[in-house]
Design goal:
Elements (H helix, E strand, L loop, with lengths): L1 H8 L4 H7 L4 E6 L2 E2 L4 H16 L9 E7 L2 E6 L2 E3 L3 H16 L9 E7 L1
Antiparallel strand pairs: 1-2, 1-6, 3-4, 3-6, 4-5
Length: 119
């Protein structure tokens, strides 16, 4: 609770702080194989990916998020519903995710990529 009170003093929305602390699970699959991640990578992926998806028009509150990339095509599922993306958003998500994930230890060539976030 102390961090929430401090965030109010700093002008940060307490519900946003609480929401970001509620993530239950982050999964990462590359070429159909799980990739081990530590706390930092999980939180970084969560904040970056959720932020990217939240910026799209018409996205509801995110409880479950799945982003898949295959052959240059990005699909986004929020709470089980597909979120349409145009060519610009597809390319932006594709290149951003490829860049982030390709730097992880043990990841070589990326043919398919799936990030799952449960909140």
């Amino acid at each position: 609770m102390r961090s929430l009170a401090f965030s109010n003093l700093m002008g940060v929305n307490a519900s946003h702080v609480k929401e970001t602390m509620m993530t239950r699970k982050v999964t990462l699959m590359v070429n159909s194989s799980p990739v081990e991640t530590d706390y930092f990578v999980e939180r970084f992926l969560e904040h970056t990916v959720v932020g990217m998806v939240r910026s799209l028009e018409g996205v509801p509150e995110i409880h479950e998020l799945k982003i898949s990339v295959e052959e240059g095509q990005t699909s986004v599922l929020v709470n089980g519903s597909s979120i349409p993306v145009n060519e610009f958003v597809n390319d932006l998500f594709y290149h951003t995710l490829q860049g982030m994930i390709s730097t992880l230890k043990g990841v070589d060539e990326i043919r398919t990529l799936t990030i799952g976030i449960q909140r």
